Task: inverse folding
């Protein structure tokens, strides 16, 4: 048998291959190859020349500051008379998640809807703030912030919008300060009944966690420890984040959003020691807010004293504040008008990202708009 | 036909291995459960269906010729499901009273060990800075706290002045 030439082998192989594969499939593979090149190109850029994402671009003015806390007013056409005071979480993370990127910002959405919008930025705390307590936030900081909002907007009433732990804190404020006229109250993914709060409730329970020893030894909760706790809550998060990054790395728009979100997701903020002690003991361990046993600045905090219209938003896949513990506010308030909605998404994706822009923001702005 | 049989055979072998592995896990868990007083959850229950599903999908896809980039999408979906399954398993493990107790005990131990060591280190640093005539962190924190208190006093003064001004303006005849 004569030996076959190498060129013949190649010819036979390639012509056979080409004959079997439909043109559509070849086109699909070419596109996939193109995506592969773009992935490598973007990965190279990400590693060698990482771009600092420009977050928080909605124009704003600082109207008040107290120690680390700042009150910002955002520019808007103001078609609604009642201003909105937005109270996010204290510690854990920075509030620029609510104004991440143009076109993907909750604050931008609210200002475009004509709300006179105010953000309370609690700030980044240092060791000098270790004496700051939840009580001080409720009885000193929030009343001042609310007063500044009313003075600046020239109104007598305001709406309060609490997110995450900002919701129970602001609910405590609204319930114990009847002299401040709150027209509407919105709770977005804020735990109220801490008996139903999930993994954190179990880990921070009295039997498992000695909060006094923790605070007395460390003085505060360092940012690294906050990060470790949140990573532990969902250990596979980093793996799926990186997998999704690789999968979408060819897409420049995705990459821009990822860089901004990733910057936020890795920027943790420490808790002041006394704040953490009271937060864990009164809220997580004794569930005092829900049980009507909380006293702030000598005033009893009773949720039934919230009588303004209340809107509660829970996230279906929220493992930090599961829907049941958020929904609990509805049964406790004394309001005649109260509404609960459960939306798709997790604790963060309910307020930031493409899903939030579709499911959550329009609902919140429509509910508030009709009552402002 | 012969081309499709190759991958199928390979996946059948893999599947068999997974089956055997899962059975071994189940046996091991049931033995431990028999010995232990409390029932142990079956961790294989979570990932077995996912793996089986993934393997079946792959076997089907490889049996098709020619292969399209759809294969990669299927692979991504398989990985997503795999990660989600592990997330559930870990979530269940971390959601037990036992894990919470263990974590609390480890943290307590760390704090009990760290507290005296931290105190000694803090004292030494303080002494060293004092010897160098430099302010310590405690001193700086003290000054920062005084500033915070001063700011608070100014705020209170401002509030009371504003309240008085408001009352005065209300009293003034219009």
Result:
């Amino acid at each position: 048998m004569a030996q076959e030439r190498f060129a013949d082998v190649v010819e036979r192989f390639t012509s056979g291959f080409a004959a079997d594969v439909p043109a559509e499939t070849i086109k699909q593979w070419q596109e996939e190859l193109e995506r592969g090149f773009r992935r490598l190109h973007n990965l190279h850029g990400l590693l060698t020349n990482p771009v600092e994402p420009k977050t928080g671009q909605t124009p704003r003015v600082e109207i008040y500051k107290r120690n680390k806390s700042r009150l910002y007013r955002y520019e808007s056409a103001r078609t609604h008379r009642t201003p909105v005071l937005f109270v996010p979480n204290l510690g854990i993370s920075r509030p620029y998640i609510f104004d991440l990127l143009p076109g993907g910002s909750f604050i931008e959405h609210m200002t475009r809807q004509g709300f006179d919008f105010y953000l309370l930025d609690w700030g980044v705390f240092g060791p000098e703030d270790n004496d700051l307590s939840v009580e001080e936030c409720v009885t000193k900081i929030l009343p001042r912030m609310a007063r500044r909002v009313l003075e600046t907007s020239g109104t007598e009433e305001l709406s309060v919008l609490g997110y995450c732990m900002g919701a129970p804190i602001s609910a405590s404020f609204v319930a114990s300060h009847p002299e401040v006229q709150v027209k509407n109250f919105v709770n977005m993914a804020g735990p109220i009944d801490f008996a139903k709060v999930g993994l954190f409730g179990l880990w921070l329970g009295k039997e498992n966690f000695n909060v006094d020893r923790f605070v007395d030894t460390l003085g505060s909760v360092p940012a690294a420890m906050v990060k470790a706790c949140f990573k532990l809550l969902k250990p596979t998060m980093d793996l799926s984040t990186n997998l999704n990054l690789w999968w979408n790395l060819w897409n420049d728009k995705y990459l821009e959003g990822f860089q901004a979100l990733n910057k936020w997701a890795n920027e943790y903020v420490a808790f002041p020691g006394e704040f953490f002690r009271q937060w864990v003991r009164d809220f997580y361990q004794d569930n005092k807010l829900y049980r009507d046993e909380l006293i702030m600045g000598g005033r009893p905090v009773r949720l039934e004293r919230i009588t303004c219209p209340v809107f509660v938003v829970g996230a279906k896949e929220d493992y930090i504040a599961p829907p049941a513990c958020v929904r609990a506010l509805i049964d406790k308030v004394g309001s005649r008008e109260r509404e609960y909605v459960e939306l798709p998404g997790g604790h963060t994706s309910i307020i930031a990202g493409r899903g939030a822009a579709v499911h959550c923001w329009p609902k919140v702005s429509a509910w508030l708009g009709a009552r402002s | 036909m012969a081309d499709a049989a190759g991958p199928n055979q390979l996946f059948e072998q893999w599947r068999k291995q997974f089956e055997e592995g899962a059975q071994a896990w189940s046996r091991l868990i049931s033995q431990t459960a028999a010995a232990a007083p409390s029932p142990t959850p079956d961790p294989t229950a979570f990932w077995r269906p996912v793996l089986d599903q993934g393997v079946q999908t792959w076997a089907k896809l490889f049996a098709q010729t020619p292969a399209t980039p759809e294969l990669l999408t299927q692979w991504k979906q398989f990985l997503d499901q795999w990660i989600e399954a592990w997330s559930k398993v870990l979530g269940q493990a971390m959601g037990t009273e036992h894990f919470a107790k263990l974590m609390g005990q480890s943290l307590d131990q760390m704090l009990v060990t760290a507290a005296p060591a931290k105190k000694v280190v803090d004292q030494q640093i303080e002494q060293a800075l004092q010897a160098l005539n430099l302010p310590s962190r405690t001193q700086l924190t003290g000054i920062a706290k005084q500033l915070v208190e001063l700011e608070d006093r100014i705020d209170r003064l401002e509030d009371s002045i504003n309240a008085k001004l408001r009352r005065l303006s209300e009293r003034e005849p219009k």
Summary: The first strand of chain A starts at residue 60 and ends at 66.
